[in-house]
Amino acid sequence: MATSNQSGRAAARAGANFALVKYWGKADARLNVPAVGSISITLDALFTETEVQLEPTLRSDELVLDGKRRDEDIEKISACVDLLRRKAGVDTRVRVTSRNNFPTAAGLASSASGYAALVRAAETAFGLTLTPRERSIVARQGSGSAARSIFGGFVEMRAGSAPDGSDSFAEPLLESKEWPLEVAIAVTAKGEKEIGSRSGMTRSASSSPYYAAWVAGQPPDLAAARAAIRARDFAALAEVAEHNCLKMHAAAFAALPPLVYWNGATMECLHAVRRLRAAGVAVFFTIDAGPQLKAVCAPGALTIVERTLRAVPGVLELLTSALGPGAELR
Ligand code: DP6
Fold first, then answer.
1. For residue 100, what are the β-bridge partners?
2. Res 4 pLDDT > 90
3. How would you classify the pairing of strands 62-65 and 68-69?
4. What percent helix, strand, coil does the chain show, rounded to 5?
5. Minimum-distance ligand 1 atom for the alpha carbon of 198
6. Cα of 143 to ligand 1 centre, how many Å?
7. Are 282 and 302 in contact (CB under 8 A)?
């Protein structure tokens, strides 16, 4: 329901997230309903801050991201804001000012934190009060992974089966303080990635001979990861997360033309993580649609993991983070 928000302005912060059981493929491209569920962790130290200001004099929405006008992104932003305009029963355009504190679109999930922060701020600017589930559904239509950044800690996205996407939303599984894992992100390339996840998924679904097997394998992986998280069983989570990540990339490698998101340093980092684990360090890797490697560490393992990954040739920068909260107003 709309309540009054005199200033027509609101600001929010949302953390980036990455998946331990991946979202890769869509059931409905128009409603952006995923073909598979996913499980992620929301980060504390990598986030987007977004301010939304209603501008009755504007004829179209405006976006300024990291200090630059981004007219190329405005169509997707407007489509997402339209969902909230419709709920509020207004037609007012908005000025969106957004800042990422980490490299935009380099496989570091800026669309996840970006759309989660946008939805949280725009909702309030329009004087709406949505439930977290409604927020997640709106954020999903901006970017599938954004549905998860509405929540903090460990989060599960349900693919759902309703034709209108009304049961396709994320839900919290476990709060960060209940299992305070930490992450190290090895940045091995900077700049925007060549093939975004959206077109990568489409290409995998239409041309990879392994895509059907990828989709079919997801329910058991989700069940295994859910059970491991509930039991705080790091070894079990490591096994399913690495297997799931490699299956996603196997499906992508086998697409035509092939999708190879890794570089040499990504592979070196993967081996470094596996060597550490063989030596008794509680760490596992995951990789998304880009060349950065994310290492998930049990409490106490971060220092050695960080030192080891920093020394891998080709690692340009090392980011670390604890798990963090969901999207919040500022
Ligand atoms: C590899 O959420 O960016 O990071 O819904 O098309 O915006 P759209 O895709 P997006 O895809 C994320 C893919 C992934 C895996 C994951 O985060 O689960």
1. 48
2. no
3. antiparallel
4. 40, 25, 35
5. 6
6. 7
7. no
